[in-house]
Amino acid sequence: MEGNHSHGHELGFWRKYVFSQDHKVIGIQYGFTSLLFLLFGFTLMMIMRWQLAYPGQPIPIIGSWLGEDRAPQGIMLPEFYNQLGAMHGTIMVFLGIVPLAVGAFGNYVMPLQIGAPDMAFPKLNMMSYWVYFMGGVTMLTSFVMPGGAANSGWTSYPPLSDIATIGQTVWLIGMVFLITSSLLGSVNFIVTIIQLRAKGLTFMRLPFFVWAQFVTSFLLLLAFPPLEAAGVLQLMDRLAGTSFFLPSGLVVTGQPLNVSGGGSPLLWQHLFWFLAHPEVYVLILPAMGIVAEVIANNTRKPLWGYKSMVYAAIFLGFMSFIVWAHHMFMTGMGTIISTFFQTTTMIISIPSIIILTALFISLWGGSIRFTTPMLFALAFLPMFGIGGLTGLPLGLSATDIPLHDTYYVIGHFHYVVAPGTIFALFAGIYYWFPKLTGRKMNETLGRIHFFGSFVCMNAIFMPMFIVGLAGVSRRLWDGGAQYAHAQPVLHWNEFMSHGAWALGVFQIFFIVNLFWSIRKGKKVEENYWHATTLEWATPTPPPHGNFITPPEVFRPPYEYSVPGAKKDYTPQNQPMEA
Amino acid sequence: MEIPYTSKARPDTGLINAKLGIWLFLASEVMLFGALFSSYILLRVGAVEWPHHVLDVPLATVNTAVLITSSITMVMSWASLMMKEFKKYKIYMGATILLGFVFLTIKYFEYSHHFAIGEIPSKSTFFAIYFTMTGLHMLHVIGGMIVNSYFWGPGSKMWKTEPERFTNRIEVAGLYWHFVDLVWIFLFPVLYLL
C-alpha cells in the first residue's frame, strides 16, 4: 500500500506469515487452524454416527484403517466410541468454535472496528496462537497413546477419568495449554478494547460485536482459571497418586483401589462447571455479535435497542458465573441449592431473550438484502431460539430429572452451538471475506451451502428431542439398541446419521467456495457491503498497522438510512455536518 | 508501527497498557488460587480427620518474613528508579531476587524433610493439598524471580533508552511480586496454623 510510511522495513517470510505479530495474520492463522479442527471434530462425529445408525456393522471405507485396537474388522469397539465422543466434544468446543469465534474473528475484526493499529500486546498475541496450536497438537497426539485418547467424555468426570488410560493425562496437559492461550488472549482483548479505542469512540459507540468480545474476554479471563486448578488437581491424582477426586473405599474391577481416599468427585464437577457454564456464553456471545453486525448491515437500519443489548450482554456475563450447578441437579446437592440455581438459571434467560428479541425487532421495516451472510444470520435467530427454549426444562430441577443425560440434552445444546453459533460463524466468514481478500465469495455456492446445512442441521438435531424424551441415554455405544424403552424411537438413529453425512457433503460447497474465491472470486470495491463500522475504512486488505491516518469517530455504530443523509449509510468516521 | 500508551498513560483511562494488563492477569490468578482455596475448604469440611501440627511453623514464619521483606525491597527498587538512582535500583532488585532464593531454599528443606519421613502427596488429602498449593505458589515465585532477574540483568539496558517505560515495567513486575507474596500470606495461616 502506498502512503503507508509507518511500515518501515519488509519482514522476512517467517516473521510475516508464521511468527507474525500482526493481529490480522494471527487472526487468519487462528481461522484456518480452527476450521481444520472443526472439520476434524465433525469427522469424528460422522464416524460415530455410523455406529449409532448401524451398530455392530463394519464401518465402510475407513473402517479398515482404524486398526485392531479401535475397530477390529472395521467394527467399532465401545472403548473407541467413547474416545470419539470425548474428543468430538473437546475439539469442537475448545479447539474449533472458541478459537474461531474469539481467536479468529476477535483478533481480525475487533482492532479494526475500534480503529486500533494492532492489539495492545502483539507478542503476547503471537504467543497465544502458538500455545493454542501446541494444545491442539497435544490433543491430537493423544489418539496414538496406548489405550487411545481421553475417553471419559468432554466433562472428564472422576472417578472414571482419574483411573482412565494415559490419553486422559495428555488431555489434561492439552487443556492446560489451551487455558493458558485463552488467558493470554483475553488479557490482550480487554486491554486493547479499553486502551486503544480511536478518538471519539466512546463505549456506547462501540459496535455490538466489540461489546460481545469484551464480555466474552472477561468470561474467559475469570472462568477458565478454576478449570486450570481442577486440571492441576486431576493431574496430581493421576501422576502423584493423590485422592482429590477419589472417595474412600473405591472398588475397581473387584479390587479396592490403593489410594488414601477422602476426596470428592463432586469437587471436580463444581470446578468444571464453574468454567463450563460461562463457556456456553463464550460460545454464544461472539455469535450474537457477528449476527448483530450482519443484521444491521443487511436490513439497512440501526439495531433496535442497541443499549439494552449492551446492558443485557453485561448482565449475562455476570449472571453466567452463578448458574453452574444447574448441570448438577442429579448429584443430590439438596433442594435448597437446587432452588437457588434454578432461580438464577431462569433469570439468566432474560438477557438472552432481550438480545434475541432486539435482533428480531431490528428486522421490522428493514429493506432486507438476502445475501449469504444474511441468510445465515437470519437462520441463527430461530435456531438459537429453539436451543434456548428447550433449555428451560433442563434449568428447572424437577423437569431436569427425566431429561438429564438423555439425547434431549444433546439436542438442546447442539441447537445452541451448531445451527446457532456455527451458522453465525459462517455468516461472519461470508461477511468479512471481502475485507480480507478484496474479493467476494460466490453467492450461488453460498446459497447451496446455506440451504443444505439448514435442512441437515434440523434433520440431525430435531429427532434428538424425540429420542431424548423417550429416555434414551446420551453416551450409549449402540444408540440404545439393547434397551426396550428405546425400541420405538430407534429408527431415528439412521435418519439422523444420514442427515449428518449429508451435512458433510454440503460443507464441500463451502470449502470449494472458500479456496476458489481467495484466488478467483469476483473483485469488489473496498466497502462492498456499504457498512458504517471502522473496519471498512481501511484499505483492503489492511496493511500492517491498519489505518493510514488514525481514524476519528463522530457517531454511533449503525447509522443506516439516516433521514436527510446523502447515502443510506453514514460511516462512523464521517464528521457531523455543521 | 507504534502501539500507543506503552509508556504514557491514556488520558481518559489514566492507565498504561501493561498496568491494566497485569491487573487483569492478577484477577485471573485470584480465580486460580481462589478455586484451590475453595477446594481446600470443601475437602476439609468433608474430611473425617484433619492432621494438625505436622508442618514446621517456625520455618514457615521465617519464610513469611523473608517474602514480606522481599516485597519491601521490590518497592524500594521501583522507588529508586522514580528518584533516578539506578545504582540503588540494582541493589534493591538484587536483594529481592536473593530473598526469593532464600525462600526457595527454606522450602526445599521443608519439602525434603517431609519426603524423607514418607509424607508425600499421596499420603493423605492434607498433604495432597499442601503440596499442590505450595508447589503452585513456588512456581509463581520462580516465575517472578526469572522476570526480576531479567530486569536486573539484560533487561535493565532499557533504563538508558526509555527510562520512563523501564520504571513502568518494574512497577508492573512489582505488582506481580506483591501478589505472589499475598498468596503466601493466605497460605501460611490456612495450611500451617488452622
Describe this structure in words.
The complex is a heterodimer of chains A (578) and B (194). Chain A has 578 residues and is mostly helical. Helices cover 60% and strands 1% of the residues of chain A. Chain A has 15 helices and four strands. Chain A has helices spanning 13-18, 23-53, 78-113, 122-141, 167-195, 208-239, 265-299, 306-319, 335-363, 372-389, 392-395, 397-403, 407-437, 443-469, 492-520; strands at 251-252, 255-256, 439-440, 522-523. In chain A, the strands form two sheets. Chain A has a two-stranded antiparallel ribbon with strand order 1-2. A two-stranded antiparallel sheet of chain A has the order 3-4. In chain A, helix 3 (78-113) packs antiparallel against helix 6. With 194 residues, chain B is mainly α. Chain B has a single domain (17-48, 55-193), classed as Up-down Bundle (Four Helix Bundle (Hemerythrin (Met), subunit A)), CATH 1.20.120.80. Chain B has helices at residues 17-45, 57-82, 86-116, 125-152, 158-161, 163-193. Chain B is elongated, with a radius of gyration of 19 Å. The N and C termini of chain B lie far apart (54 Å). Classes of the chains: A mainly alpha (578), B mainly alpha (194). The A-B interface holds A 6-7, 117-118, 120-122, 183, 186-188, 190-191, 194-196, 221-226, 228-230, 232-233, 236, 240-244, 259-260, 262-264, 267, 270-271, 274, 544-545 and B 1-5, 10, 13, 15, 17, 20-21, 24-25, 27-29, 31-36, 39, 42-43, 46-48, 120-125, 128-129, 131-132, 136.
